Every structure is written in C-alpha cells, then in structure tokens.
Amino acid sequence: MAYRRVLLKLSGEALMGNQGYGIDPAIVSAIATDVLEVVSAGTQLAIVVGGGNIFRGLKGSAAGMDRATADYVGMLATVMNAITLQDSLERAGVPTRVQSAISMQEVAEPYIRRRAIRHMEKGRVVIFAAGTGNPFFTTDTTAALRAAEIGADVVFKATKVDGVYDRDPQQHPDAKRYDTLTFLDVLSDELAVMDGAAIALCKDNAIPIVVFDVFVRGNIRKAVAGEFIGTRIVPHR
After folding, report:
1. Is residue 199 part of a domain?
2. What is the pLDDT of residues 171-201, one digit of tens each?
3. Burial (CB count within 10 angstroms: exposed 0-12, middle 13-18, buried 19+), residue 8
C-alpha cells in the first residue's frame, strides 16, 4: 500500500445510500469489506464519520434551534453511526475502537490521542465520533484535525460523488470534474470540498486530500494503494 497511516472521512449521507434517511446495511457492509482488505495489507486506518443521515446541525439551526444545541444533537448522531460501523467492521473481522469527543463511557472510549495511535499500531481501526466535541465545527474539520494529531499521511473523503466539480454535478450535467487541485485553488475558487477550516488545517500541515466515490466497490483499497481515482488536493501541482 502507498500509505502507512490514513484518515478516512465518511459522510453520513454516504452511509444512508439511496435511502432518504438512516443507515443502509448493504453500504456499511461493503465499506467494512474494503476496510478489511486495507487493514490486512498493513495500513493503519482511522475513520471520522458524519451524522447528516440522521441530523444536521445547520438544518436544525435554520429551523429555529439554537445553533450550539443543534450541533450537539448532530454530534450524538455521529456516535450512532460510529457504533453501527464498529459493529459491521467487527463482524467482518476488523478489531475496532470508537473514541468519542463527548464522554459516554458505556459505549465509547474518550478521545485520547496517544491511545488512538497505539490502537492503530496494534492493527485496530479507530473511529472518531462526536466531532471535535465543540459546536460550530464540522466533521470535515474534525477529520483534518485528527489527521494532523495522529500523523496521518493523507485524508480520504469518501462521498457520493466521484471527485470535485466546479458545480454540483447532480444539478449541472455539464459540470467539470477536476483531477488535481491545490489547496489554494479550493480556497480561492470556493469549491465545495470541505469547509475552509478543514482545508486550511490540511494546507498548514501538508496533508493531501483525496475525494472519491465510496459507492464503487474497492475504491477505498484503490485509494490506499495510491491508484489515481477521484480528485487529489495537494500543496503544489
């Protein structure tokens, strides 16, 4: 494999597949199978999971909820996804630990950086849940932050589209897909990849990002192997 340690960002929307809400067991099972191949090859893997398939803080805030309260509800949704993903991974034979930024000792370990690294060194997958534990931060920012903390070589953003486009490809069939971008390209063109804080964190720590379609079986393994899929976001061309 091309990378020693990777951070995989899974959006909540990816987990629900073509359903309008919740979790698609077939999608989670396929992800678990891909992760098993990657871990079996010796790559250390951590996952940050979103919660948009259950609750999105921004939508709650737009509907009149207090923004901080809405974000905390969204964090709890990510814990539900993390535990579900953990169950699927362990049924596939992948030892997994969930670490939550919000204390809930009955279902998850607290987030401790050194313990997370030790888990990965022992071949366990670590799922980071509850975002950063603070409102006003997205799980994209969490992914960038955790990647920097654990010394990840790359951030993989597995989503519902096959890369980064100049416009929404679902609404604009003629949208242009990029093969390679720099961090400055993303920031200056305001491309909808990850939020600005996440891009800035990856830029400052020289952590490349690869965006690809999680629904294509084997894409996680291909990305970890260094195959050119999706869109790469790098410090320089």
Report:
1. no
2. 888 999 999 999 999 999 889 889 999 999 9
3. buried
Tally of structural domains, the chain: 1
Residue 125 domain boundaries: 5-162+206-227
The verdict on residue 184 lying in a domain is no
Report pTM: 0.93
What angle is formed at CA 212 by the lines to CA 217 and CA 2, rounded to 5 degrees? 85
Contacts of 20 (CB under 8 A, 6+ apart): none
190 Cβ contact list (under 8 Å, min separation 6): none
Look-up of token digits 């987990």: 15
Q: Where residue 122 sits, what CATH number does that domain have?
A: 3.40.1160.10
Is 176 part of any domain? Answer: no
Nearest alpha-carbon partner for 92 in 152, 43, 128, 38: 38
Whether 140 maps to a domain, the answer reads yes
Q: What is the reported pLDDT for 128?
A: 98
Confidence of residue 13 (pLDDT cuts 50, 70, 90): confident
φ, ψ of residue 234 in degrees (nearest 5): -130, 165
